[in-house]
Amino acid sequence: MLVLTRKVGETIWVGDNVEIVITEIKGDQIKIGIHAPQSIEIVRGELRTEVSEANTEAVIQNLNIFKKKK
């Protein structure tokens, strides 16, 4: 993991086409802006975890239903 220190207005580039901009710092919260092509999916980490957990739960439920039909 790369850890950087940035100030408001400073940027970070990921590859050639993703720019992350620090827009505001208030206490322990940082607001960032992300400039990226529409083809790149950007999802908050907690949402990605929730979706993954929901998908896993759905698969388990489907497997249980399938097992009951036998």
TrEMBL record:
Gene Ontology, cellular component aspect: cytosol
One Pfam family named in its UniProt record: CsrA
UniProt entry keywords in alphabetical sequence: Bacterial flagellum biogenesis, Cytoplasm, Repressor, RNA-binding, Translation regulation
Keyword Chloroplast part of the UniProt annotation: no
Domain of life: Bacteria
Coiled coil: none
Chief subcellular location: cytoplasm
Gene Ontology MF annotations: mRNA 5'-UTR binding
Membership in a protein family: Belongs to the CsrA/RsmA family.
Protein name: Translational regulator CsrA
Organism: Rummeliibacillus stabekisii
